[in-house]
Amino acid sequence: MAGFLKTEAGKGLALSAPASLYVGLLVAGPLGILVAYSFWTQTYVDIDKTLTWANYIEAASDPLVRHLMLRSIAIAGAVTLATVALAYPIAYFIAFRTQKKTLWLLLITIPFWSSYLLRVFSWKLILGFNGVMNSALLTTGVIDEPLTFLLYNEFAVVLTLAHAWAPFAILPIYVSLQKVDRALLEAATDLGCSKLERFLRVTLPLTIPGIIAASLIIFIPTVGDYVTPSLVGGSQGKMIANLIQVQFGPANNWPLGATLSLVAMASVGFVAILFVVTTTALGRRIR
Amino acid sequence: MKNITTALLTATALTAAASTAQADAAALSIFDWSGYEDQGFYGDYVAKHGGAPSYTYFGSVEEAFTKLQSGFAADLAHPCTDALRKWVAADLIKPIDTTKLSNWDKLLPQIKDVDGVTIDGQTYMVPFEWGNTGLIYRTDMIADDKISIQAMASPEYQGKIAVPDAASSAYALAALATGASSYTDMSDAEFQAASDFLRAIHQNVRFYWSDAGQLDQALASGEVVMGWGWNQSELNLIWNETPAKMMRDVDKGIATWVCGYVHLKSATQSDEQVYDMLNALSAEASGKYIIESWGYAHSNADAFKSADQSLIETYGFADVDSFFDGSLFFDAVTPELEVRMLKEFERIKAGF
């Protein structure tokens, strides 16, 4: 035993054991319970533990589930696109154009010093009927009536999430830009690339892993976001997590809630894999 | 010197006794809405046990149900009548022994009769506070003779109304609007008509409110001009000096909710202590306090006589009897109908 622990494999196992145990108990365990629940049925206040596909059939045939799932993916997709597109220039600036990297990175994390809930709520105050935005526009005479399309729709959800998740996009992209070998850029210039060509053919392909990482970090959690749509989404901005919450809360139908959670996880996984495959292929083509 | 020592010893002994009493008082655990730890609600308990019980809070009755069903233990809980059938079915609560309640005979008979306080001949709840759910509107934006529940569907008010994000409340509204014979046991045709009404007003809904503060603010700012809400919102608007009131005409439709305390099966404290608390909560003095300071109606009939009459007038509880005759009560909904309401309401909110 002691001998085994001195081998490379033994050391590796010993090092990863605490984390594996933790993940096993606190992620795999609950996930197993979720899977079990998804095959049971709720009968008023009790659970019927006969295994059945009924919940999956209901989830697959219900247009409401499909609608909310597609909307969640669309919203998360829009958030990812907006966030990554806005984050790239900032990350580029920090990596190539400034010496005060630490200061800038610190500044970027400032939004994280306040709670996520507070940030969502601030957006509600900004976009609200008598909120900051409307008050400003009314006082300056740009509008006569408060704008009502700012809050309680998909737009508000995308805006709020894009703001909340920005640092998560900036950091991985910054790291991948930082790793780009400056000699390659010089070589590209020497070989006659214009600045734009150099960016498109050298910098961008080399930072694809950073973009993929940033996109996944943002896309996966935002598909299942619950707080933002429930606070700023209104009825037009509801997402799949809100329906799942209804099943675990007011509807008291945990088995259906478990099924919806698993369906959501599978959908997210599918879209994420599709994204990674296409982006990687695209990166190769540019090169 | 000796005197001082005695005095010190006595003082120490007294402090010790007081803190033991407080510990005993706090041993009683109550699962409640936040705010109800107000000592004015149970003065007699504090007087007898030397302290307040300990409180744990929930944000909605559904949340409370889920938590209790997953094994959370307490002595008393504070749900409302419409949830009670489910709580009894889930075997969470014990029947109440009304003979141990010193104030039982003084409680308003109409409130005691609400389905849910009593289920299948057994009393399960000591009603504590009650109030209205009704249409609150801006009196400066809609004339009194134009207001009605049906007006919520008028194209004139597009994006200008608010409805609770709770199926039972929304269906109570729809039942009143469509004239269903009963809210707890609608026929298929009545259910369809009620759902159609909710679909019709969905076009006008600015938001489905889940916390009352959201409704209060929207009414105060004029973001919405009417909303289905609790009398608490009307009070907040009155205190805020917003020109708004609740449509209290029973012919036009108003609902009454009743909440109270139930004895949980997971209770660990003695019945004596539990009933001391129940008696304190239902006492006349507690009623007077909640009416005057909170603007909520209490279950004790005597409290209405001893409370400030002008405040009762302002808060809309002056003519209790005529009110009870025409109002819809949030009875305990039948399980099948509850499931249908929840499913259909989710569809309606999503625009299906």
Write a brief caption for the model.
Chain A has helices at residues 2-6, 8-38, 54-61, 63-97, 101-109, 116-127, 132-139, 154-178, 182-190, 195-206, 208-223, 227-232, 240-248, 254-286, and strands at residues 41-43, 46-48.
Describe this structure as you would to a colleague.
The complex is a heterodimer of chains A (about 290) and B (about 350). With about 290 residues, chain A is mainly alpha-helical. Chain A has helices spanning about 1-5, 10-40, 55-60, 65-95, 100-110, 115-125, 130-140, 155-180, 180-190, 195-205, 210-225, 225-230, 240-250, 255-285; strands at about 40-45, 45-50. In chain A, strands 1-2 form a two-stranded antiparallel sheet. The model of chain A has no long low-confidence stretch (mean pLDDT about 90). In chain B, strand 1, helix 2 (about 45-50) and strand 2 form a beta-alpha-beta unit. In chain B, helix 2 (about 45-50) packs antiparallel against helix 10 (about 270-280). The longest helix of chain B is centred in the first third of the chain and has 26 residues, at about 1-25. The model of chain B has no long low-confidence stretch (mean pLDDT about 90). The interface between A and B is medium-sized, with 24 and 33 residues.
Question: Secondary-structure map with pairings?
Answer:
The complex is a heterodimer of chains A (287) and B (352).
Chain A: H1 2-6, H2 8-38, E1 41-43, E2 46-48, H3 54-61, H4 63-97, H5 101-109, H6 116-127, H7 132-139, H8 154-178, H9 182-190, H10 195-206, H11 208-223, H12 227-232, H13 240-248, H14 254-286
Antiparallel strand pairs in A: 1-2
Chain B: H1 2-27, E1 29-33, H2 43-49, E2 54-58, H3 61-69, E3 76-77, H4 84-89, E4 93-94, H5 109-112, E5 118-119, E6 122-123, E7 126-138, E8 161-164, H6 167-178, H7 188-202, E9 205-209, H8 212-221, E10 226-230, H9 231-239, E11 244-246, E12 255-264, H10 271-281, H11 284-294, E13 297-298, H12 301-306, H13 309-314, H14 320-326, E14 328-329, H15 335-349
Parallel strand pairs in B: 1-2, 1-3, 8-9, 8-10, 12-14
Antiparallel strand pairs in B: 3-12, 4-12, 5-6, 7-10, 7-11, 7-12, 7-13
Helix pairs in contact in B: 2-10, 6-7, 6-15, 7-15, 8-9
